[in-house]
Amino acid sequence: MKDVTTDPDEESTYECFACGAVTRATSPIECPECGADMRNREIPVE
Ligand SMILES: [Zn+2]
């Protein structure tokens, strides 16, 4: 059962696919270290 609510005004933890950098942001961003796409850590990956 998926019951993950995402509040757009609330920060989530994002992890870089490429280099593993972690940052907090309110929306999906590019990695500040390498510019790659970042993934929201708080949403489980299937
Ligand atoms: Zn990166």
TrEMBL record:
Highest taxon of the lineage: Archaea
Domain DUF7129: 9-46
Pfam families listed in its UniProt record: DUF7129 (PF23455)
Protein's name in the database: DUF7129 domain-containing protein
Species whose genome carries this gene: Halostagnicola larsenii XH-48
Lineage of origin: Archaea, Methanobacteriati, Methanobacteriota, Stenosarchaea group, Halobacteria
